[in-house]
Amino acid sequence: EVQLVESGGGLVQAGGSLRLSCEASGFAFDDYAIGWFRQAPGKEREGLACISSDGTTYYPDSRKDRFTFSSDNAKNMVYLQMNSLRPEDTAVYYCAADYLGGSNCLRYNGMDYWGKGTLVTVSS
């Protein structure tokens, strides 16, 4: 069974930092693209960072320098380090996977599997 479980969200004050984690299980980690997405109420789901099945990391053209993606293949884990958080970063953050996904792994409608999400709330 394919499972993706996010953790690390919570309430943080503006200017603070959070490190989100996504644990993948039930599939061959190296055969999938895995990415981080977020969605705030009334807004389109947004790709933040991803790693393709060949191991290349991608960020959107509008990359937020405050956010950094990393992975640990031995642990089947991916992470999103978020620094200098702002109230506008408040959203549900999701981990998603795509079998043999490539450079299009920032597109949410191409991802096959999703975690339940973890809520990040940034207070002013």
Question: What is the secondary structure topology, with strand pairs?
Answer:
Layout: E1 3-7, E2 10-13, E3 18-25, E4 32-39, E5 46-51, E6 57-58, E7 67-72, E8 77-82, E9 91-99, E10 113-114, E11 118-123
Parallel strand pairs: 2-11
Antiparallel strand pairs: 1-3, 3-8, 4-5, 4-9, 5-6, 7-8, 9-10, 9-11
What does this 3D model show about the protein?
The chain has 124 residues and is mainly beta. The chain is 0% helix and 50% strand. The protein has strands spanning 3-7, 10-13, 18-25, 32-39, 46-51, 57-58, 67-72, 77-82, 91-99, 113-114, 118-123. Strands 2, 4, 5, 6, 9, 10 and 11 form a 7-stranded mixed sheet that branches. The termini are far apart. The relative contact order is 0.32. The mean pLDDT is 95.
